[in-house]
Amino acid sequence: MYTFLNDSFVPDDKAFLHVSDLSIQRGYGIFDFFRVMDNYPLFIEDYLERLYVSAKEMHLKVPYKPGQLKSLIFELIQKNNIPMSGIKVILTGGYSPDGYQLADKANLIMVQKPMNFPPAGFPTEGIKIITHEYLRDKPHVKTINYVVGIWIQNKVLEKKAADVLYHYKGEVSEFPRCNFFIVRKDNTVVTPGENILEGVTRKHVLRLAAKKYKVEIGRVTLDDARAANEAFLTSTSKRIVPITQIDESIIGEGKPGRVTNDLYDDLVALELNEQAKAR
Amino acid sequence: MYTFLNDSFVPDDKAFLHVSDLSIQRGYGIFDFFRVMDNYPLFIEDYLERLYVSAKEMHLKVPYKPGQLKSLIFELIQKNNIPMSGIKVILTGGYSPDGYQLADKANLIMVQKPMNFPPAGFPTEGIKIITHEYLRDKPHVKTINYVVGIWIQNKVLEKKAADVLYHYKGEVSEFPRCNFFIVRKDNTVVTPGENILEGVTRKHVLRLAAKKYKVEIGRVTLDDARAANEAFLTSTSKRIVPITQIDESIIGEGKPGRVTNDLYDDLVALELNEQAKAR
């Protein structure tokens, strides 16, 4: 398999950065991640748009124009031929002269890895999640900073949970790598609007939901979450996953909900449609 | 020059990490940094103690016992022979199997670089600093996360300032890489006690100050800072630097203060004493 590094395709096991890179020195970089389905990068335009926004916000320059980068991604997909996979694009602060200043040139890495995506079909069981008070730095930018998310993994496992939902002073934001939704008793689909990264899956789910349900983007408290009829998370690699327990509270009837299921089906249909359009 | 990487001394320009390292993938790692003066690592015990505390807090295992690591540091100093320099020890989350999970083995990097330390003699001019509202993740741990500190450098330069002081809701904490002190009108030396990294220089300055002045570790607001008689920062690489302007407010008489100067002289004397003891 190949990894793309700055200006060339190198074998996976030959993709190295010098230790003066600002990601190693100061955790400084941005990234994005998208799914490849049957060798097609799903919703690639959305992810590329976000990548350039993240780069700009963090004073980093993507060394290619969007069209060039997209071509390189298609070349990577062709070279590797891993039909069901994920591609991560990382842009770091580059080789810093003093370990603090941004380098003139960012380092660009594109790694493709096989992934087992959730099998087609809505999950028959929901997950348990825990909550943690934490306000992310620059939540609207996809930086590589996951210090708290990784640090807390021990506790997630210890509590036999699948993930951890951040809140700050009782107001819910998101998971380290997923967005959060609730469905109120009147079937309104609600997702937090502040202190979050705007997920691509979140965006599509919101659009799909708006066709059938009342949709709200706004404040969700821990109490709102616990009192919801349904709850679910969205992410690039997991699509939609129903949540049936938050800390010690059972959500709704303790099983995946009808609206969640409906949105899941609509999302899978949208993905298939997107792939078909690309042929 | 040599860099120590995991288990061997490698030429500086050959020190690389594979892109699967969790610092590159997720900004996950800790570090410490100390000064080498006349080939002696100043206050090395303090820095090593903090390194092991940071590692433990972040679920990372230093691959050597403190005594072994200290020997390796002395070997690095001997090999490189850069009498006035800085050594940075970085411990990352290691080569992660999935780009999120901590690896079984952390990656250890020790880089030595020549440094121009401030010339002996108390600065005749103070610096201007700006302020920024920000609450660090895990401020008490020396993680490699400097996303905000580096991101805001543009603004620091634009405002012709030397550094940026973090506060949260008006309560001052620290600089990205330095601690903050004020001297009240009654000569009490005060430094924030919460949401900070406990600097080694801060610790020594507090001890020195306590011999001559009233010392307080506690709440410092932006108003307190602006109303102070003197203000200064402490750091490993800068010792003590007087601050004469915070945003648009002039501090005290707008020149380096008497107490700051006194503490600076005491710190230099302590350093010389420490070096002499080591001979």
Provide the CATH top-level class of the largest domain in chain A: Alpha Beta
By CATH, the topology of the largest domain in chain A is: D-amino Acid Aminotransferase, Chain A, domain 2
Regarding quaternary structure, what we see is homodimer
Strand content of chain A: 25-35%
Give the termini distance of chain A in whole angstroms.
24 Å
* Global geometry of chain A: globular
Q: What order do the SSEs of chain A take from the amino end to the carboxyl end, as H and E?
A: EEEHEEHHEEEHHEEEEHEHEEEH
Number of discrete helical segments of chain A = 8
The rounded Rg of chain A comes to: 19 Å
What composes the largest sheet of chain A? Answer: 9 strands, mixed
- Which spans of chain A of ≥5 residues are poorly predicted at pLDDT below 50? none
Q: Could you say how many structural domains of chain A there are in total? A: 2
